[in-house]
Amino acid sequence: METMLAPCGIDCGICSGYLREKNKCLGCLVINEDNLKHILTCRKKQCVETRGLNYCYECNKFPCQDIKKLDKRYATQYGESPIQNGLFVKTNGLEAFKTIQLEKWICKSCHEGLNVHRKYCPTCNEINPNYLK
User: Fold this and answer.
1) How far apart are CA 28 and CA 18, in angstroms?
2) Global pTM?
């Protein structure tokens, strides 16, 4: 399992788009021909770039309305908060965030990565304890 924090505060490493094999999303940090449309249309990515930042939490307007809307959806549907992720990284650093995410999102039975969008581990079918729906 890989932890990759997007500029908005979402961990791409636990997203089904990033984890799937077919039509894989490469995450907001990877710029190439396959991922170009996603990166060019992401308002959060564009915003941090125009401000010369890497992450939304670095902005003095954090959390803005766009991040608050994203946070509401992710917190209620998936139990992940881009705002809390950003604040945690700002206070504790990216490595501490990665350590916590890796511990939280590893299946306790088979030790493979879990998916924020799936109720069961894709490898051994154990229940994902972080799944909310």
Assistant:
1) 10
2) 0.84
